[in-house]
Every structure is written in C-alpha cells, then in structure tokens.
Amino acid sequence: MGFGDLKSGSGLKVLNDFLSDRSYIEGYVPSQADVVVFDAISSPPSADLCHALRWYNHIKSYQSLKNSLPGVKKPLGQYGPAGVADTTSSSAPAASKDDDDDDIDLFGSDDEEDAEAARLKEERLAEYAAKKLQINCVVEDDKVGTDILEEQITAFEDYVQSMDVAAFNKI
C-alpha cells in the first residue's frame, strides 16, 4: 500500500491514477490523510498529471485549516492503492514478513457460491426456454382412449410439464 516516492515522477503518476476517481485520499472530505500526502510532495505536480494537480491546488487552499482537519495522521505508506511498494520507510519490509495471515481465507471461498448461482441460473433459464408443442392427431376410439393417450404423454416428466387438449378428432 502507498504511492511510492512522491518526489519522483512514478510516485506522482500513481497518485494521479489514484485520484482519477476520488476527490480526497480518504473519504469524502479533506482529512489528515490529505495533509500527510500533501506534505510529502515537494512541488506542485505538472499539468499532465491533471488529477494530482487538481487535488494539490484544492488541498493547498486548506493550508490555514490543516491542523483542524479530521482524522489521525498515519505514516505516508499507509495511504494509497494496494500493491504499490512503500519506499518511504525501511520498517515496511520487516512488517510484511511478520504479516503472514494472507495465507488463510477467513471468510470462505466465493467459488462455491458462484457455482451454486450458476446452477440456479441455468435451471431458471431452462424453465423460461420451455416450448409449446401442438400436435394434431386422429384417435381411433375403439383402440385407444383419450385418457390413456394423455397419461402416456405426461409420463415424459422431464420433457412435458403439462398437457392441454385443444381438440381430438375421433373416428
């Protein structure tokens, strides 16, 4: 987690990307997180880093209020996107070696739920994909009764949900 070195172009690029869909470092109002990151930047970002420059100018307007902004100041490396190496302190690699709880999934796997959801979706789609079949037939009443014919058709329970008799032609 962190922005990297905010005095370098790569760190400012990470900050710019982070601020592309945010107004502040944390939350929806200026906070101590913004003050910490602002203080780590030595000069205003260049114009091609438009999101970082917008944020920089906005936080600069709070200079007189920076001690009264909400929040608690944390080390610079605790702010920013995950997956960026923290180059601001030397104690960060030691802390990451002690932190081995990443190997345990405390909340379970979502794979089982996804498989169950996929199965339910397929079943529901199969219900909506049902087709209506109409058959015209002529029944010789002496050989086959209409109720026997209905029973034989509905015996295919996997394929036939219901059966309605529109008309029978009897001979």
Automatic annotation (TrEMBL):
Keyword Transmembrane helix set for record: no
Renumbered residue ranges of the record's region Disordered: 80-108
InterPro entries per UniProt: eEF-1beta-like_sf, EF-1_beta_acid_region_euk, EF1B_bsu/dsu, EF1B_bsu/dsu_GNE, Glutathione-S-Trfase_C_sf, Transl_elong_EF1B/ribsomal_bS6, Transl_elong_EF1B_B/D_CS
Domain Elongation factor 1 beta central acidic region eukaryote: 106-132
GO cellular component terms, semicolon-separated: cytosol; eukaryotic translation elongation factor 1 complex
Protein name per Swiss-Prot or TrEMBL: Elongation factor 1-beta
PANTHER family in alphabetical order: EF-HAND AND COILED-COIL DOMAIN-CONTAINING FAMILY MEMBER (PTHR11595), ELONGATION FACTOR 1-BETA (PTHR11595:SF21)
Subunit structure: EF-1 is composed of 4 subunits: alpha, beta (alpha subunit of the eEF1B subcomplex), delta (beta subunit of the eEF1B subcomplex), and gamma (gamma subunit of the eEF1B subcomplex). Interacts with elongation factor EEF1A1.
GO molecular function terms attached to this record: guanyl-nucleotide exchange factor activity; translation elongation factor activity
Family: Belongs to the EF-1-beta/EF-1-delta family.
Keywords (A to Z) from UniProt: Elongation factor, Protein biosynthesis
Residue spans of biased composition, Acidic residues class: 98-108
Gene3D superfamilies per UniProt: 1.20.1050.130, 3.30.70.60
Organism listed in the record: Lates calcarifer (Barramundi)
UniProt domain Translation elongation factor EF1B beta/delta subunit guanine nucleotide exchange: residue ranges: 103-171
Biased composition (Low complexity): 85-95
Record function comment: Catalytic subunit of the guanine nucleotide exchange factor (GEF) (eEF1B subcomplex) of the eukaryotic elongation factor 1 complex (eEF1). Stimulates the exchange of GDP for GTP on elongation factor 1A (eEF1A), probably by displacing GDP from the nucleotide binding pocket in eEF1A.
